[in-house]
Amino acid sequence: GLFATARAAFRIAQAFANGELVSPALVEEATRNYTPGLGENRGLGWHLRSDASAATSMLSEGSFGHMGFTGTSVWLDKASGMLMVLLTNRVHPCAAPIGMAAIRGEFHRLALR
């Protein structure tokens, strides 16, 4: 899991996306779809935008992010230039299923307004 502030997660994701942590060529390779036609679009360590995902269908092509088990996520929408960080804990006080994809999707929709 990630134990950080939203600001710290934002800064790390921003530095990665801007090619400050790794080379821009590696950013390009890491955010390329290596799983076309397999139900989820995945890069190297990143989820990629998908029409089939309630969490990402409203994002632009080329958007990428990472989603954690407890509901946390960080997404960069390339067309808008928005970087969105959502810190949650869906397992406290219990680990009942709550539809995290829909919650993330609503968060992204509101952020992109």
Helix content: 25-40%
- Average pLDDT, all residues: 92
How much β-strand is present in the residues? 5-15%
Question: Reading side by side through the largest sheet, how are the strands ordered?
Answer: 1-2-3-4
Write down how many β-strands occur, each being a DSSP E stretch of 2 or more residues.
Answer: 4
Q: Which structural class is indicated by helix and strand composition?
A: alpha+beta
Overall outline = globular
What would you report as the Rg, rounded to the nearest angstrom? 14 Å
Structure description:
By secondary structure, the chain is of the alpha+beta class. The chain has three helices and four strands; from the N terminus they run H-H-E-E-E-E-H. Strands 1-2-3-4 form a four-stranded antiparallel beta sheet, sandwiched between helices. The chain is globular and about 40 Å long. The protein starts with 5 loop residues before the first helix and ends with a helix.
Characterize this entry briefly.
This protein has 113 residues and is of the alpha+beta class. 28% of the residues lie in helices and 14% in strands.
Topology of this protein?
Elements (H helix, E strand, L loop, with lengths): L5 H12 L6 H7 L16 E2 L15 E4 L5 E5 L4 E5 L13 H13 L1
Antiparallel strand pairs: 1-2, 2-3, 3-4
